[in-house]
Amino acid sequence: MASHCEKNHLPPDSTPHLNGDANTHLPKRPKIAPTFISDSEIQSEFAHHDPSVARINNGSFGCCPSSVISAQQQWQLKFLRQPDWFYFNGLKKGILESRTIIKDLINAEHIDEVSIVDNATTAAAIVLQKIARDFSEGRFEKGDAAVMLHYAYGAVKKSIEAYVSRAGGHVIEVQLPFPVKSNDEIIFEFRKALERGKANGRKVRLAVIDHITSMPCVVIPVKELVKICREEGVDQIFVDAAHAIGCTDIDMQEIDADYYTSNLHKWFFCPPSIAFLYSRRSPNHSDLHHPVVSHEYGNGLAIESAWIGTRDYSSQLVVPSVLKFVNRFEDGIKGIKKRNHEAVIKMGEMLAESWKTHLGCPPNMCASMVMVGLPSCLGISSESDTLKLRTHLREEFRVEVPIYYRAPKKGETAPITGYARISHQVYNKFEDYVKFKDAINELVQTGFTCTQLSK
């Protein structure tokens, strides 16, 4: 009886290969190139955005694609359909899955180092309340120093005032230049601030370092500053990186901070609001607690944060869906960051050339946002002017963009006192920036100044 191989005209020692080879003469399967998301599909994912607005301010509130919104609604319905089942069987498992994805994205060493909270402001409160307890319970001496950047986010500054200053900490601000020309300028000023912090025998107990400052927007050389803190004996280092994940490269092993937080609803396509707080595993970092005390108190920050009472946790559960969305792009989130950086620099340079101004820092100190000088003839002379001009651009020109006031330096002639912070996210189009360019040029051509805006 003929063997199976003989029936198929193959020698007894041959085995057919799925992709074919020289022995079998079977045709190889053609390699199918991966299909990435198209421009039309991107626009469809963000079709819920107001089409009449040039939305070049992703940095403030972020964005969420339709596919992720649908996933969020499914989580919400699961809870509303059977809350008890959801609480006992779905919630903890779902949040653990999100934490695991975040752990891998940020290269944390252990899942226990990653907690999910509402936003970076909540994370700051968690860390700064711990520092306040260190002062009030005698682990730190009254008058010991905390160092933060002058450009720290306003809510974080207020949290330092509310917790650290009231507990007896002496707060020192790092005065940073703007416009800024190089990382060396930032490093120089940071070292000076640490020296002030150590004056009169004080110890520097805390350094709060932004990864990407909000206004004005600059990428801070965070790894270098953390290294300096280690060399100078700073006790605890907290990196406020509200804009970082999805916007610039982050790696917990390389950065080496004690605490690090970033919002996932700004540049990582999650719905509001969700952030992670990384806390390096160490006995010195074990006394972290969520500001809202629930029955999970004492079970570790990650568990405490996963249940702070009945509320909508859906934004914390859609991280797997967000990962699926970003992986539709070539090179995933890495490709998105590269695409956004290149586009925002190109758009910033286009605007600066049209207005005869300049960028607020070199391209290598930008991520997906950049500061662009506005024509000095607009007469921006206060923070109030920036808010009024921003409102005017929104209401009269349908352009949404934040504006920063820079006080003129002594002796400057025709100084640039207003800078626009433009963002670029995947939904943005070239026309958005042309609309902004034309709006400013129209204001200049008509002789507009901020004094014409009502108080």
Summarize the structure.
With 455 residues, this protein is an alpha/beta fold. It has helices spanning 4-7, 39-45, 58-61, 66-81, 83-106, 120-136, 154-167, 183-197, 222-231, 252-255, 264-267, 301-306, 314-317, 319-326, 332-355, 383-397, 430-445, and strands at 54-55, 114-117, 145-149, 170-174, 204-210, 236-240, 259-263, 275-279, 369-373, 399-400, 403-405, 418-423.
- Give the beta-strand count: 12
The CATH topology assignment of the largest domain is Aspartate Aminotransferase, domain 2
Which percent range fits the helix content? Answer: 40-55%
CATH superfamily of the largest domain: Type I PLP-dependent aspartate aminotransferase-like (Major domain)
Helix/strand order: HHEHHHEHEHEHEHEHEHEHHHHEHEEEH
Per CATH, which architecture of the largest domain? 3-Layer(aba) Sandwich
Give, in spatial order, the strands making up the sheet with the most strands: 2-8-7-6-5-3-4
The CATH class of the largest domain, by name, is Alpha Beta
Task: Give a verbal description of the structure.
- Keywords: Pyridoxal phosphate.
- It comes from Cucumis sativus.
- Residues 1-10 have a biased composition (Basic and acidic residues).
- The protein has 455 residues and is an alpha/beta fold.
- It has two domains: 40-60 and 332-452, Aspartate Aminotransferase, domain 1, CATH 3.90.1150.10; 69-324, 3-Layer(aba) Sandwich (Aspartate Aminotransferase, domain 2).
- 42% of the residues lie in helices and 12% in strands.
- It contains 17 helices and twelve strands.
- The strands form three sheets. Strands 2-8-7-6-5-3-4 form a seven-stranded mixed β-sheet, sandwiched between helices.
- Helix 7 (154-167) links the parallel strand 3 (145-149) and strand 4.
- Helix 6 (120-136) runs parallel beside helix 7.
- The chain is globular, with a radius of gyration of 26 Å.
- The termini are far apart.
